[in-house]
Structures are given as C-alpha cells and as structure tokens.
Amino acid sequence: MAIRNAYLNGIYEDLLGRYAEQHEFLEAVHEVLETLVPVVESDPRYEQQNIIGRMVEPERIITFRVSWVDDAGKVQVNRGYRVQFNSAIGPYKGGIRFRDNVNLSIIKFLGFEQVFKNALTTLPMGGGKGGSDFDPKGKSDGEIMRFCQSFMTELSKYIGEDTDVPAGDIGVGAREIGYMFGQYKRLTNTWTGVLTGKGLSYGGSLARKEATGFGLCYFADAQLKDNGMSFEGKRVVISGSGNVAIYANQKASTLGGKVIAMSDSNGYIVDENGIDYQVIREIKEVKRARISTYVDYVPSAKYVEGCSGIWTVPCDIALPCATQNELNVDNAKSLIANGCQGVFEGANMPCTPDAIAAIKGAGLLYSPGKASNAGGVATSGLEMSQNAGHISWTFEEVDNKLKGIMETIYAACASAAEQFGMKGDIQAGANIAGFLKVADAMLAQGVCY
Ligand code: NDP
Ligand code: 2IT
User: pTM, whole model, 2 decimals?
Assistant: First the structure.
C-alpha cells in the first residue's frame, strides 16, 4: 500500500525495486515508514538531510562462509551474516540467530527493528543483528562447538566491546554464547564484554536470561493498567517455548494470569489448570526435547499437532513469543472472536500487517515487539555496564532496573503517539519515539554514514 507522503513513499518504492525478494525486510520498513508520516511532515530537516533514506540502508553488511566438520568427519558449509545497521547512538548491538531459514532479508529486518528498539531502551546502543542458516536442532554438543568456533573466527574481525556486541536470539542461548565467547577470547587474548547473555560464572548478568519474558509482562502490565485492566485472573496463551516464552510464562503467572497454552514449531499443548514453566524449562533448556513430551510430566495437558492452531485456544491475553509472521489475519480473527483483549508481542514482528490491522481495528490492546520485547537487549545493556565497571549487581537490582526501563518505554511510546495525534497507538508511538532519538543523533553527527 502506498505511503501517504511522497518522500517516504519514494524511499519505499526504491527499496521495493532494489530488494524485491527481501520480504521480511520490506515488511518491517513499510510498517515503520507508514507511522512516520506526521513526524517527517513536522520537521523539514528529516527530508533535507535524507535521514530516512540513510536509516533504511545498513552501515555495513558482512557475509561469510562458515565451514565446520560434523561428527561423521564430513565438511559442512553454512552462511554467516552480521548486519551493522546503525551506530548513531552507540556501538552496534543485537542478537545472533541460528536457524535453517536464516537469510539476509531476515537479518536485515531484525537489524532494522533493533535500531528503534535499542533507542527506546534509553541506553546508548546502536542496532545490528547476525546469524547463520545453521540449525542447532539435532546436532551434538561437539558439532555445535565446532560450528560456533568457526563462526566466531570470522565474526571476531568485526566486533568488539565498543564496536559491536552480539548476543543470543533464536537457536543461540547460553551454550552457544559460551562457545563463541571462548573462541573470541582465544583469538584476541583479551577478556572483554564482547558478547552478552554470558554465563553467570564468566561475566553474565543476573536476570538476563529472564529479561525478555519478564520485560514483556512488565510492559503489558503497564499498558493493561493504563487501560484499566491487569493480568489478574486472565487466561494467557503464549506461543513458543524458548527463552522468551518460558520466562513470560513465569512472570505472567506471578502477576496473576494463568498460562493455558504454549507451543513449539511442531505443535501446542493446552492445560486449563495452567502450564508449569518449570516443566517447560526442564524439557527445553535441559533435555532439549519437544513440547509434546509435556504430557508425560502433566497428564491433564493435551498435545495438538501443528503450531498455528494455538491461536484458536480462547484466551484474554495473547503473547506471541516464537517467530516472525507466526500470527496471521485468520489467527487474529480467531482471537478476536474468542474475546481476546490484548496482543503483546514478545517475538520480533510475529503479527503480519493485516493481523495487526485486524487486532487494532477490533479495539484490542496491541504492543509491537520492538517496544515490548526490549527488556532483553536493555538487560544486555546492563550486562555491558557491569562488565565495563567490573562489578555485578544482584538479581533484584537488575530486575528493578528492567521494570523501570519497561515502564519508561511504555510511557515514551504512549506520549509520542499522543504528541503526533495518535493517542493510544503504541505501535506508532514506538516507531516515533525510537526514530526521534536516532534521527536527532544523526543530524548532530552530520553526513558521516
Ligand atoms: P528460542 O530459540 O529460545 O525459542 C524459539 C521458540 O520459538 C521455540 O519454541 C521454537 O520452536 C519456536 N519457533 C522458532 N521458529 C519457529 C517457527 N518458524 N514456527 C513456530 N515456532 C517457531 O528463541 P527466543 O525465545 O530467544 O526467541 C523467540 C523470539 O523472540 C524471536 O522472534 C526472537 O527474535 C525474539 N526475541 C528474543 C530475545 C532474547 O533475548 N532471546 C529478545 C527479543 C526478542 P522449536 O523448538 O520447534 O524450534
Ligand atoms: O531481538 C533482540 O532484541 C535480541 N535478540 C536480544 C539482543 C541483545 O543484544 O540482547
């Protein structure tokens, strides 16, 4: 759909012609540009200095071959990426994703969103993202280690504690971060906080593991309260069963909600008595098994094959925490028909554009991932501060800072939306508040990228 501003529409048309095959990237850019129309029209400098034209093009893209030897002695080849998108407000910062469907479009969309998200955290971090089409599922520990070492051998040339600080994302957790950190240290002979999400015994921050899921619920709670509601007594459906989903379950339950369904890429489980996050953690973090095995631990639960069916489970609050475009317009219609009151994104871009339109159109509360899942990277920022100061904060200190940051982000999104005549539109507010900070820094620094 055309964007109702000639400057913005021209930029989008140009990207469409140049990167026609990068669907996820185009989707993420379109979503942001649409909401920036009143902002660009409020200050001629954004167009004069071509701030948007510069923001949609990464400062640097690195792609590389990752060769490694599998357990059978065969040499395997994967593709590695790091997109250093924008460094206007701080060193590039963002996760690394290992999944078989990873390509440049996915890494660019994630890097683009990360720029706005990191600006919202109030911490000085630019945006970047990386990954590989390597899938850790079904690989041995030895294979994972050899892959991570090979990946880091090349990546190490481009990152550093003041340059670019990667972290985890889908398929990259404490194990992968550990292997990559070890290899970086070996190559550089320096101990620096070059990665976040590290283990607690070697510089990791307490509460980083929990941060994205906890932060999502702190954000949702702030938005619910602002609209006279709360988690208390609500039926909650959470897609995914990874890092974000597990701790979203824990916090939603603490806040009085009952999580009745969770999923993985094969299917979903339902239990009206509530799903125990500790059992999910045992299955996913320790055993690295499928969510279908939950019924072996809790016989009252039911397993259903096929992951998208989870959105047909009637609920009050939906927290999509798996992956991009996992919730389409039909799923949105099911949620609406079943009386859902709010959709708060834990994953990056989980709702398709027409799903978002349906959700907002039906008057449900909606929060975009780049605001409501910012607690993960915010706590990565806190890990960087602790590493730089050679100190460590208690779980409570970090958790309190995280809660404060999420409430501040919600307030900033709400206020930016209101300032530009879109009161209550947290999607627009997130894009605008993130944009204003980055654009201001770019204007101040001149035409340097
Ligand atoms: P994990 O790898 O820990 O878990 C991912 C979960 O999503 C798994 O349950 C996985 O199922 C499921 N999943 C992945 N791909 C698909 C798919 N194509 N269809 C259905 N389900 C799928 O990742 P995270 O929890 O870290 O990340 C989840 C989302 O949150 C991603 O969008 C990520 O970008 C975003 N995010 C993560 C942050 C973090 O700190 N980790 C911070 C902010 C956002 P299976 O086990 O079958 O693979
Ligand atoms: O999407 C994200 O914000 C993340 N995967 C976390 C990034 C980070 O640097 O902690």
Answer: 0.98
